[in-house]
Design goal:
5 helices; 4 strands; alpha+beta; two-stranded antiparallel sheet
Length: 147
Amino acid sequence: MKRIGLIIVVGLVLGSSHFVEAQELSKHDILRVAVQRICPVEGTKLGEHGKPIKVKAGKEEIFLCCQACMKGKIDPKHWATIHANAIKAQGICPIMENDLPANPKSTIINGQVIYVCCPPCTAKIEANPPKYLAIIDSYYKKNLKRK
């Protein structure tokens, strides 16, 4: 079931992906680059080919390793790795403050995927995006410091 969900999500992303280069990377974006770690097109480590490029893939904002990847397609294997990296880095539902389940639910706020333990938690996040984006950043920082 989990595999089917991933295939559907990847299909939606690939079917609706278009890349649009963004502005300079903010501190928030730099943190997200550290969590994402790899390029969704090539699978190379972000930063190996210069400053990562922020792009939009469907409703999500992600980072590519270089300008050349803007012409490429998202590799489903790399896409799954990126989401697994984010789930691991977040680790906790920002509403219930419990560990995320094996198959967490999610919502997208300002282009960023936020994982939760159950669907009702997404509504609470959507009611106060700045608060929960800050909480997720704190989870990311804590996780990255452990490495």
